[in-house]
Fold this sequence. Notes:
The chain is α+β, with helices and mostly antiparallel strands. The chain has a domain of 82 residues: Alpha-Beta Plaits (2-Layer Sandwich), CATH 3.30.70. The chain is 22% helix and 17% strand. It has five helices and six strands; from the N terminus they run αβαββαββαβα. The strands form two sheets. Strands 2-3-5-6 form a four-stranded antiparallel β-sheet, with no helix packed on it. Strands 1-4 form a two-stranded antiparallel ribbon. Strand 2 and strand 3 form a beta hairpin. The longest helix has 12 residues. The chain is elongated, with a radius of gyration of 24 Å.
Amino acid sequence: MFTFTAELFRSLLKKSATVSYPKKPVKPAERARGHIEIEIGQCIFCGMCQRKCPTDAITVTKTGRKWGINRFRCILCNSCVEVCPKKCLDMDNKYSEASDTQTIFEAVGEPVPAAIPEHESTAERKSTSERKSTAEPTAIQPEPSAEASGNA
């Protein structure tokens, strides 16, 4: 009984061992794996990340210049980041917000510019080549699979 009382007084005088999470956000560790980020302007849509992904969470469409990831399938193994030839993928240490619906993160790159006719001036060519990527990531709802609808 005496050891219990001594422990009680010691714990009352110490500061709390836990953090109050909603009030004070926890700072993630430097090498923590949170989610995949892409710099869509650098991506060449080669599909190496899609082929290396063990869970088929990444989809790459070269003709439509689209890159997408199903965050519920991704196991954060970092394989796609390691294999990317342009190093446009990065593992961010911040976690995605919790969700009860499955969404696919999709980023769309700028369309490939068409061939410039020879009669255009050099000033027009320069302004065309200096354009920056205006791609913005979008989240879309995946189409329901046949298994989910019960038509197996």
